């Protein structure tokens, strides 16, 4: 038994006395209670430890240390009885010998006195530590660095507390070992809580990381002009109204044509109504959220070919088409949005004018090819029915050529010498719509109906194909199939990325003299969101439509005749979102006017296709060089490539473009491999980047208007 000592002396034997061990254990539990409110200790465990301490102190009643710390033990035990969470439950079963000794510890605990001064200090310390913890949590939410630092400090504190607890429990008490396990589990809970609270900070960090400088610049560049994008349209109503009327038919024709083709290749799963509704919805959303409102979205032959390939794949695998279609679109939406936010559109600068001109030429050829195919089909049908009566196909051919030539004439009427400027402008603006309505009314005359000219084939009432519901059942395919849909979505993303950026790039060309600046990444994000919405509703995908976009720019342009070159040049363009919004709203509303749409003759639509394809050729220097190849060099401008480089080099460069155009067109005709069309755009870029520099110098490229990007 150790001897008593007064308060002024401190013998070395005190280090090994039971009272000191008791004091260390009690102080440790007080510190854990205040500093780590998330630590959960067993009630019976704490009672056992405190009772043991009080029992030791009761044997040394005259020892002041035992009196003080025994009181702290009682206070702490009372704190655990009142403050512990209701969810605590006994963690382990106690042995019978421990239960017998518990009564004796409880009787000893009654003899201990509460140290009021230590109690008050403990309460103040608890309040102080709680306030400090709340302050640290606020700092975690405000700054990412502070949050990470606090997590590390919390982990270090828990580890240090566990080490201290392990050193204090040299005795082989089973209860204290269980307390160590409780501390470890509570440390895990603490870490999980900190991570959960830091989710918002992590999200903001990722947003800052992905929100690239290019994306932010696009937003800042277009933000000041957003209001004027709407008001400018209202200020130029005389220009907006005729543009809306003409472009409505220009957008209606592809939607109906592609809808008819899609109905055939998908066995009626997607038809004309879906294409009208999808085109209208996509155009309205794009006019509101896009960065460059002069660009239009529309169905394209490439997206239709991709849809056809996906439908055949689902048919062979006996899979439900629409859930797969929707998940491919959702993945594509995710990839497109991610690429836009990351500022990936800057990579399109490597797609030089060489690629733009070939791609532009392909679109022109596609529109003309579709128009010629439609007219050829009339002759084939007539030949099968009555080889001696070809009246209908020739009448249809006359209507198509009449629509095409008349539209070309009225558009160019502004450059003539007739009437005054105001009248010429009105004829140019309203002329295309007047031509379409004239031939449509002509086909309704009783004496003209005997020729049986075919008209657009659309349903009589508004109904989705097959009578399906408006929303696609996303859960109709297994989870692993949903994940696998990401692979075809990568191909579709590549197609959209190239098509969209090239189309908008042509709209933003310096030749068009747009003033408000581009926003390629915002356009990409807008297209991504629109693709996701269309996919959920099972509507056809839309993409950048070069032909409609360029004709939109032409319709909203103010032009003048250059007396030196005798060519029409653009003076300014009314950049507005109003035209796109109204046109596509009317297009979506067309589903309520289906009986009227059925009266439009197909040859008139073919004539519009011929006009759009020919109009897109305007300004394409690649196609211009083809005609210049047969011209006399002395009659060409001094800056013409033929005069700068000579005929041989110019013909080699143009010949390579012709071969690329034929290759793309032939590749597109093979429906089984059309899904890989984006790879062909990459081939064009590779030819320009690696093959042509071996033949042409940089000065040659500059003379051809195709400088190498830095």
Protein architecture, described:
This protein is mainly alpha-helical and 710 residues long. Helix content is 68%, strand content 2%. The N terminus is likely disordered.
Write the layout of secondary structure elements.
Blueprint (H helix, E strand, L loop, with lengths): L17 H18 L7 H16 L5 H20 L12 H14 L6 H27 L1 H25 L5 H24 L1 H12 L2 H10 L3 H10 L1 H29 L6 H18 L7 E2 L2 H16 L4 H21 L11 H33 L5 H22 L8 H24 L34 H6 L1 H22 L12 H17 L6 E2 L1 H10 L1 E6 L4 E7 L4 H12 L4 H4 L4 H16 L3 H8 L12 H5 L1 H23 L7 H15 L6 H6 L7
Antiparallel strand pairs: 1-2, 3-4
Helix pairs in contact: 1-2, 1-3, 1-5, 1-6, 2-3, 2-4, 2-7, 5-6, 6-7, 11-12, 11-17, 11-21, 11-22, 11-24, 12-20, 12-22, 14-19, 14-20, 15-16, 15-24, 15-27, 16-17, 16-24, 19-20, 19-21, 19-28, 21-24
Short synopsis of the structure:
This protein has 710 residues and is mostly helical.
User: On the 0-100 scale, what is the average pLDDT?
Assistant: 76
Which stretches are poorly predicted, pLDDT < 50 over at least 5 residues?
1-16, 34-44, 59-73, 79-96, 168-173, 193-210
The largest β sheet comes out as: 2 strands, antiparallel
- As a percent range, the share of helical residues equals 55-70%
Task: Quote the distance from N terminus to C terminus.
Answer: 90 Å
Keywords:
710 residues, two-stranded antiparallel ribbon, 29 helices, 4 strands, 2% strand, globular, disordered N terminus
